[in-house]
Amino acid sequence: MIELEGSTPPDSPTPPAAPPALDGTVVVRESLDDVIDAVAGDLFMQACACVRAFGDFHLALSGGSTPQPLYRRLMYDPNYRDLPWKRTHLWIVDERVVPFDDDRSNFKMIRELIVEHSAIPPEQVHPIPAMLAQPDLLYEQEIRENLGWRERGHDRLDFALLGMGADAHTASLFPHSPALNDRERLVLPNAGPTVTPPDRVTMTLHMINASRLVAVLVTGPGKRQTIARLVRERPPAREAPIMGVRPLGGELRWYLDRAACPDASEP
Fold first, then answer.
1. What DSSP designation does 234 have?
2. What gap in Å lies between CA 220 and CA 35, rounded to an integer?
């Protein structure tokens, strides 16, 4: 399914960007601000719907620079003032094995942009304890304990926000990572020569694909060639981990700005 912003007037010098043929729903917007609005609006609606249906909202966020404008928008835009933070459980998709005060920590960024400025209760904020022994097992247990009270089939994340690297990695699942092969675990450590240092702890594709809605946010010209490769080659997940994101019983939505969309003739 493809969504495009409103049609371009006849005298406009810039036609709408051609949406790439990716699996799931492809939401294309002209500017970074427009695509951030699209993600924020869908996140808000999903949060409200889940709180009505289940009493709470389980949100998993990614680190990196790409989602930072979204996190800021959720805090200052009055359109999202009523986002139900008091009913939200905040999870981290992946984390580097560094302390929480390290600038490389995904949680540090999310804490500074969202946690410190929202009404989310501290006990509903769930950072990955990356510096502890067996952080993957601890986090997996925490996930199961907090989702386990829901009716079977609804005991899953409600919204997972992912990014994508130029090498088509997502979360901390890099090409040829051994963690890509797991079909049972929710969280795994990820280290070794295929992982960009430092070592990581990450949700698995099994965990991500169980989500009710998976949003992949891709912006800027630096990702353009990667999107073109995904469309042209359809590489397997072991070579392009983002291709392993295929929600089971959920929805996959790509959010791209014009700059990230390759031309139809682009090699």
1. -
2. 11
Q: Can you give the pTM of this predicted structure? A: 0.92
- CA-to-CA separations, 167 to 105, 173, 214, 218, in angstroms, rounded: 21, 11, 20, 13
Instruction: Report how far residue 5's alpha carbon sits from residue 3's, in angstroms, rounded to the nearest whole number.
Output: 7
- Tens digits of residue pLDDT in 50-86: 999 999 999 999 999 999 999 999 999 999 999 999 9
Look at residue 75 and give its three-state secondary structure: helix
60-252: which CATH architecture?
A: 3-Layer(aba) Sandwich (3.40)
Is the preceding peptide bond at 13 cis, omega within 30 degrees of 0?
no
DSSP assignments along 27-52, one per residue: EEESSHHHHHHHHHHHHHHHHHHHHH
pLDDT tens per residue across span 209-242: 999 999 999 999 999 999 999 999 999 999 999 9
DSSP readout, 141-153? HHHHHHHTTSPTT
Residues 6+ away with beta carbon under 8 Å from 256: 17, 19, 20, 26, 27, 28, 29, 35, 218, 219, 227
CA end-to-end span of the chain:
23
Question: On the CB side of 189, how many CA atoms lie within 13 Å of its CA?
Answer: 16
Cβ–Cβ < 8 Å for 16, 28: yes
Instruction: Give yes or no for a contact between 54 and 154, defined as CB atoms under 8 angstroms apart.
Output: yes
Look at residue 14 and give its three-state secondary structure. Answer: coil
Tell me how far apart the alpha carbons of residues 247 and 83 are, in angstroms, rounded to a whole number: 24
The tokens describing 163, both together, are: 């990014």
Phi/psi at 179 (5° precision): -65, -20
